[in-house]
Amino acid sequence: MSKILVIDDRHRNLTSVRATLEDAIPDCLVIDAHSGKEGIELAGQKQPDVILLDVLMPEMDGYEVCKRLKTNDKTRHIHVILISAYETGTKNKVKGFSAGADAFLIRPIEKAELAAQITSMLRISHTEQQLKEALTKAEEAERLKSAFLATMSHEFRTPLNAIIGFSALLNEETPAIEMAAYGKTIHDNGHILLKLVEDLFDITLIETGDIKLKHEAVNIHSIVNEALEVAGQEKIMERKKHLAVKFNPGHAASELPLYSDQSRLKQILVNLIKNAVKFTANGMVEIGYKKEAWTGKQYVTFYVKDTGIGIAREHYDLIFEPFRQVDDTYSRPFQGAGVGLFISKKLAALLGGELWVESVPGNGSTFFLTLPLTSGPESKGSSQEDLSYSRRKIS
Asked: N or C: which terminal CB in the chain sees fewer CB atoms within 10 Å?
């Protein structure tokens, strides 16, 4: 809704202009100010799209008010239309435009002329706003591109340096024990590189719509066990052997007839487990699932809970964006390309489900994945509206 501020010390004029505006431009909010000082304050607070400003006012006339509005960083962008019943000469119009006015109207105001002027100003205002938003997005895109290139450079360089460095140490004189250790380091870093390439490939497939999904009976017990094995491996890699990993099955896996893409479901849970271990220094990581029902349909909700650093609510959406972390700086303490959660959320949606987070900074996070249970491989998934109901229910 467009906002129009009318500044006039005469109540009759305010009432008349308000009626004209509401009749000519129904979709607008009209704000009244009874003096120049009050108008300047309201302009800064309400940020109207257009100001209708009477010229003849006591204490501070319209020219002075306009000049102050146009020299204030908070209000200089607002379009101002001066209105006068008496000062109609060219000299006074020039004075008004010199003060920064965008247009000049003479009373009695023609309804059609006022509507045309306001509509024109609103169109210009909205176009300027779109340009500002486009500029902001372009600047953000440029910043993200730079951050992405720096991140990818670092993420590729680290394992490549290890592979090249340790392979250079291998020769005929290398002791067998050292050769085995070097070989393991090369192997591990090779897998890190492969995972990074696979993630980037997945993003491309998701964005182009070329990703292929299976619809098969899922062995939930097997998938969760594999995720728990990954958690154990991550504990060792992150040197967090004292971090507890718990499993809490809410129902027997046999009670959950889930038809989905087993490998993609495992990919989501593994991503969540790895993040939980990475961002949790002490305490525990817990994975579990439970059967739920609402709106006459059955669902399984997986969750990965940790006692780590947590996430502020204002960053909930950011962490699911590609190549983003809460801390985007090159020197951030937690490394990674920032693609795992983006891929996981996209995959969850493609599987007919939803992925979201609930967290308290300093007290850990819980990531939820809800998928529809089906009676057979031909059954269809649930709507996003149903899943949104689940999200409100759990939250």
From this structure: N
